[in-house]
Amino acid sequence: MMELVEKLEMPSDIKLMFCSTLKMKNDPPNDTSALPLKIVSFLVESVAQNTTSSVFLPDAGQEIEVSGSPTENGILQWGVNIGMNFVAVRSESSIIHAFPFNSKKKRGDVAVKRPDSEVHVHWKRAAEIVLAACTRYMDIDGQLVLLNEENVEYFKKAIEDMASGSLRCVAIAYRPCEAETVPTGEDELAQWELPEGDLVLLAIVGLKDPCRKGVREAVELCVKAGVKVVISIQVIHVIALECGILESNADAEEPNLIEGKSFRAMSEDQRLEVVEKIFVMGRSSPNDKLLLVQALRKRGHVVVTGDGTNDAPALHEADIGLAMGIQGTEVAKESIDIIILDDDFASVVKVLLYIIYIMLLITKN
């Protein structure tokens, strides 16, 4: 059997649910009228500065264009919806140091110098990781309040509720830095390790992570052709059900569905024993995906893997590597055999069918 290990990307129609540190869920998410201006200001600063994407302001009468990854696009679009002027915010404060997204730490952060010379470090990544680094939040008056056990449990429950509704959870936090702790020279700034604790939680954002149109039909076609689809994704069983990889909630348990850390903790023999039963691997690191590909190959399968963040090792290890032409990483494109120009899973299936057809012709002759 041919195995397809794929990371399904989000389309552009991302929906947002916003949960503020005031212990209330905002519905609709664009309504910030009940929030203190101080929180809104910090949120806008974080969204505009802690991003690798951009916002294009067209001529009057045309819609604002957001370019970048689907997750970044969703958060930036939400920022625009709550009144963020991307260009103005970027010009009012300056980035003095940035720590790009790291797949091991699952976060990215940036240090920003404000007009009043204050320095803020902004965090934005996986909600549970950011929450663990927070010690305070802002109350209705914009005052900093210590997080107690009850607060933490409330926010954990909010994250769980969002995840159970197939929302990808991202937390936004910041930390003010004392002037004497901030390096002044360029060389010192380049080596500066940004603070990793004592953060102030600003918001938890839930992003809808739906399947692209046509993915379910493409998965069904794969199954008919003898191709098993295995996905590596953060919001796990709900998406797998939507696209037909899991047939029912009864299938959403180990070993059909497994987290990367559980697979990683197994011995090699244990991984070989369960790997053919896995359909979904959630919260997986690039190394987890590499272990998955290696185990499948040792079981005699032809493995095709798709392009995700920092997935070059797995792409190189697979029999056939696929990269996305639009949103694929340059590193991944250098490690693969085929580039899918339109980033469409249905096109991946077409490639597989061509491969199967060629294999049949070779075998026949």
List the helices and strands and how they pair.
Blueprint: E1 2-6, E2 16-20, E3 24-26, H1 37-49, E4 54-56, E5 65-67, H2 70-81, H3 86-92, E6 94-102, E7 107-113, E8 119-126, H4 127-132, E9 134-138, E10 144-146, H5 149-164, E11 167-177, H6 186-190, E12 199-208, H7 215-224, E13 227-233, H8 237-242, E14 257-259, H9 260-265, H10 268-274, E15 280-282, H11 286-298, E16 302-305, H12 312-317, E17 320-324, H13 330-333, E18 338-340, H14 345-364
Parallel strand pairs: 1-13, 1-16, 9-12, 13-15, 14-15, 16-17, 17-18
Antiparallel strand pairs: 2-3, 2-12, 4-5, 6-7, 7-8, 8-11, 9-10, 11-12
Number of strands: 18
Structural class by helix and strand composition: alpha/beta
The number of distinct helices, counting runs of at least 4 residues, comes to 14
Strand coverage percent:
25-35%
Largest sheet: 9 strands, mixed
Share of helix, binned: 25-40%
Low-confidence stretches: 1-24
Average pLDDT:
78
Q: Write down the Rg.
A: 22 Å
Overall geometric form: globular
Terminal-residue CA separation: 21 Å
Structure description:
The protein has 14 helices and 18 strands. It is an alpha/beta fold. The strands form 3 sheets. Strands 2, 3, 6, 7, 8, 9, 10, 11 and 12 form a 9-stranded mixed beta sheet that branches. A 7-stranded parallel beta sheet has the order 14-15-13-1-16-17-18, with helices on both faces. Helix 13 (330-333) links the parallel strand 17 (320-324) and strand 18. It is globular and about 75 Å long. The protein starts with a strand and ends with a helix. Residues 1-24 have low confidence and may be disordered.
